[in-house]
Automatic annotation (TrEMBL):
Chain intervals annotated as zinc finger (TRAF-type): 227-276
Domain of life: Eukaryota
PROSITE patterns: ZF_RING_1 (PS00518), ZF_RING_2 (PS50089), ZF_TRAF (PS50145)
UniProt keyword Zinc present: yes
Coiled coil: 298-346
RING-type domain location: 90-132
Keyword Coiled coil: yes
Pfam families reported for this sequence: zf-C3HC4, zf-TRAF
UniProt domain TRAF-type: residue ranges: 227-276
Keywords: Coiled coil, Metal-binding, Zinc, Zinc-finger
Name of the protein in question: RING-type domain-containing protein
MF terms in GO: zinc ion binding
Record InterPro entries: Znf_C3HC4_RING-type, Znf_RING, Znf_RING/FYVE/PHD, Znf_RING_CS, Znf_TRAF
Amino acid sequence: MSEETTEHETFQSEEFDWPAQTYTSIMHELNIPEEAHSSASSTPVNAPISASCFMTRYEMKRIAARESISLEVDLRDLDFVEPPNESLVCTICAAPFVKPMELGCEHTFCEDCIYGHLSCGIPNASLCPKCRQPVETLKPVPRLLNQLLDELEVECPNRYEGCLQRLKRYTVNDHVSKYCEYEELRCPKSNCGGSIQRRFYDKGCLHTHIECDVCSDLVMEKDIADHEENKCPAALVNCDCCHAQLRRGRVKTHLEVDCPMTTIKCVGHVVGCKFEDRRMVMDEHIASCPMATMSSYFAEMNERQQTLQEENKRLRCQVDSLNAKLEALEGKYTKLAESIKKERHRSMNTETSAVSANRIDELHARLNDLTADYNTRLDNATSEAARLHMEMMNYVQQNGQRFYTVNGTITALRSQINHLLSMTRLGGNGGTSGNGSLTSGGSDGGGVSLETTRREPPKL
């Protein structure tokens, strides 16, 4: 295989264009001198093994790992300080290689990933995930590639617990198992069963509950520091907006109701006002905002409309219930009619015609009672639904008329404001020539005096 072919080898499919990720192509991608990786690949490594032998060895390693007490960190779940080179990323797990294995076709995958692929039991599971050639042999990659992977810089797995240390990937297991102050260990107390961070291990069991000095809540001793710093509702904190000092438990209410520096919307936003500003200046805006004046009216109208909708929904449920009862009554009516026919037929052929006639009269009376009860309930429900419908229509019509009245008032107010603004501008221009009047040639010289005429604003 030529150098150019090796460098640009890819696996083509309908959706993906994967890099080849053979050992040689990875070295070229990382700009490793050919002498370095050629000498590394010539060093003694484990000989290739068959796929069946690899599967057997891997399963034996899994059994031994289950029996082992120590737990290793899954290196594929680590967060990297800088994104790793794509040539070092396994195309199965999308993470940098962990114990990479090279197939007979020279494509490389994590040991766990290729085992999972070969053992999944689906069709073509025995083929390479990239080139679809049969997987007959596997072998570990040269040591140089493993060294490049080991040198990748990662975050501590416990960084969300507070550990900010950055490590080389190959040191992560030692750091977590021996040195990380935020790693959870079994409580030193034999009958406790809890866990405790390594930094508190020398203090003994911290799983007893103690009382917080500030809020008097019972908190587990190992969590008391975090409780006092981040959770205690009675602790004094500063508001992020106005920097006022208050209890942590009141911060949310303070921001929603009291804080003068919190940005809020005008109460007229429900009818279209877009103004937003700090609470301390909102009162001044509300005093001059016509939409804020109407907001309470529209809120009341919306509440009333919601009440009517809920009432309408309740009536619909009642109507559905009455319809179900009607169907049941119709079924009973059908059965009674059939029973009456049978009784009549029987009365004509037996000597107990008087008894049958009484039975028929009884059935007729019962049927009439059921029919009358149904008609009464149906009439009541229909009347109530019609009443609520008319009430809703009247209310909507009244609201529409009020809305048009308010809209006309706003239009008139706008015209008055525009008129006053224009008069103010005219007065300002006249003031520049003295006493608010414009003259042509002077009054003594026969000039025409152009006095500013004040116009009355249009009446509503």
